[in-house]
Write a structure and sequence with these properties.
Layout: H1 22-32, H2 40-47, H3 51-63, E1 67-70, E2 73-76, H4 78-84, H5 95-106, H6 113-121, E3 126-127, H7 129-143, H8 150-164, H9 173-176, E4 186-187, E5 193-194, H10 205-218, E6 224-226, H11 227-231, H12 240-243, H13 248-261, E7 266-271, E8 274-279, H14 288-297
Antiparallel strand pairs: 1-2, 3-5, 4-5, 6-8, 7-8
Helix pairs in contact: 4-14, 5-10, 7-8, 10-14
């Protein structure tokens, strides 16, 4: 959720975007065999994929924070259970789950640095693949002080676009573009791509609530977040307005809906010209997992 220039990574996905069946199928398999990924041959047979795809699945499980790997065993995390567990959305059928998975990927600055950079730092509403590659190269060189191979950065850009953008005529579209239904990146009919900010009225409220809970939990002593900081990435923090590609009007509409749904939990205030969102329940820390459990199971 916050960029650490000493802990970054690019191109660890083996050029494979996250695919629809990978997360549900992997969690189901890991419940039977926690050492599944310690034996590549066994993982290949159980998951029905090649060796490189096994590595890619291992990567995406870690990026999304669904599985913790230690030595020869894997443990499904509380987040994995709350999001894709048997009592939640085990078959990835709920659109809200896709939005939350997107948030988890785009805020993981350590393991998916290129994705974090795109959604939090790259603001051009229209661009070509070469333009975004040049901008990512500049970021890695000038800000991170890294000299990454052009092929590595290019693989990040290619994988990002294949994951998020549906391109007419591409034969592997049904496999790759898992997050295309979110409409965050689209092929531009005039060439290249577009990723504009918009009101996004169909953004599920639970995705916004989960993102805010994670953001408040990351700074437990901070009672308020600036609305500008929520809209635009300030400093090294991820910004939910940027990650969800929300316009200012769209962000405010969603925040108003959140305040109406949870009176007494949040409050918008103007103090000395600073517009801020306050967490009012100071005796109770924000619990992102509680947000998911309440949504998927009705647990209070």
């Amino acid at each position: 959720m916050q960029l650490n220039r000493q802990q970054t990574s690019f191109g660890r996905h083996e050029t494979f975007p996250l695919r629809f069946a990978w997360l549900p199928k992997s969690l189901l398999a890991l419940r039977d065999d926690a050492a599944l990924f310690d034996d590549p041959e066994s993982a290949m047979r159980r998951l029905g994929v090649g060796r490189n795809m096994v590595n890619a699945i291992h990567y995406w499980l870690r990026v999304c924070g669904l599985v913790h790997f230690e030595d020869a065993t894997a443990r499904i995390t509380p987040l994995g259970e709350a999001l894709l567990g048997p009592d939640a959305d085990p078959y990835l059928e709920d659109d809200a789950t896709l939005w939350i998975i997107h948030w988890l990927i785009a805020t993981n600055a350590e393991r998916a640095t290129g994705f974090f950079w795109f959604f939090n730092r790259f603001a051009a509403p229209r661009f070509t693949e070469s333009e975004i590659l040049g901008a990512l190269t500049d970021f890695a060189t000038a800000e991170l002080r890294l000299n990454r191979a052009a092929t590595t950065l290019k693989s990040d850009i290619s994988t990002l676009l294949r994951l998020y953008a549906a391109v007419p005529g591409r034969t592997d579209e049904h496999l790759d573009a898992l997050l295309a239904p979110l409409g965050l990146i689209e092929a531009d009919p005039e060439g290249g791509y577009r990723s504009p900010r918009a009101p996004r009225p169909f953004l599920p409220l639970v995705a916004l609530e989960f993102a805010l809970a994670q953001r408040f939990a990351a700074e437990p002593d901070q009672p308020a977040l600036s609305v500008r900081g929520l809209l635009y990435a300030e400093g090294d923090w991820a910004a939910l307005g940027a990650v969800f590609r929300l316009s200012e009007d769209g962000l405010m509409r969603h925040l108003d809906a959140l305040l109406a749904a949870y009176p007494g939990r949040y409050e918008l205030r103007d103090t000395a010209g600073l517009h801020q969102l306050f967490w009012l329940e100071r005796d109770q820390r924000p619990e992102p997992l509680a947000v998911l459990r309440h949504y998927y199971t009705g647990e209070s």
